[in-house]
Amino acid sequence: MSVPARWLVRHEALHVDCKVFRVFKEHCHHPLDKREGDFFVIHSHDWVLGLPITNDGKIVLVKQYRFGLRDLSIEPPGGLLEPGEDPLIAATREVEEETGFKGGKASLLGSCSPNPAIQKNQCHFVLIEGVKIESSQNLDEHEEIEVLLVAPKEALDLAKNNPRVHSLALLALYRLRDARPHLFL
């Protein structure tokens, strides 16, 4: 069995622009055995999920409709980073826009590749400790969001027992548990 090689992109062209992401057709070439093929890759800005924690240890979550799921989803607030935006700033912005909670200290818990088979972007997980409600929501045109305050252990249990859970939300809660295990006792 051979060791995998890094394919070379010989040509890349926009296939379709879908507003929040773009799909590119990439013609790739294997450097050793000379195989070639066309592959479709999704280009998007990086994403962020905020993990806002109140002073009394509750996590602020959002409940909203997800079009891909065609159902409601409970997850941490989050969204797209603006070009060049720091994940800590993006997370605090998204949390405030979606929930009205702000303040506290932000720290990066980690990042991941949501689906490296077809996507180029990263998702960043940001803990924001000591948030409090300071404003009303500032939602996008098609957003309807219910704000929930939940014990972190309950949030993780809900996510683990839901087969249709947002996988990045589940990973974010595991990262939170690893970083702040006392919140899950």
Protein architecture, described:
By secondary structure, the protein is of the alpha+beta class. It has 2 domains: about 10-45, no CATH class; about 45-185, Nucleoside Triphosphate Pyrophosphohydrolase, CATH 3.90.79.10. Helix content is about 20%, strand content about 40%. It has helices at about 85-100, 150-160, 165-180, and strands at about 10-15, 20-30, 35-45, 45-55, 60-65, 70-75, 80, 100, 105-110, 125-135, 145-150. The strands form 3 sheets. Strands 4, 7, 8, 9 and 10 form a 5-stranded mixed beta sheet that branches. Strands 1-2-3 form a 3-stranded antiparallel beta sheet, with no helix packed on it. Strands 6-5-11 form a 3-stranded antiparallel beta sheet. A hairpin with a 4-residue loop joins β1 and β2 (about 20-30). α2 runs antiparallel to α3. It is elongated, with a radius of gyration of 19 Å. The termini are far apart.
Question: What is the element layout, followed by pairings?
Answer:
Elements: E1 8-17, E2 22-29, E3 36-43, E4 47-54, E5 59-66, E6 71-75, E7 78-80, H1 87-99, E8 101-102, E9 105-112, E10 123-133, E11 145-150, H2 152-160, H3 167-179
Parallel strand pairs: 4-10
Antiparallel strand pairs: 1-2, 2-3, 4-7, 5-6, 5-11, 8-10, 9-10
Helix pairs in contact: 2-3
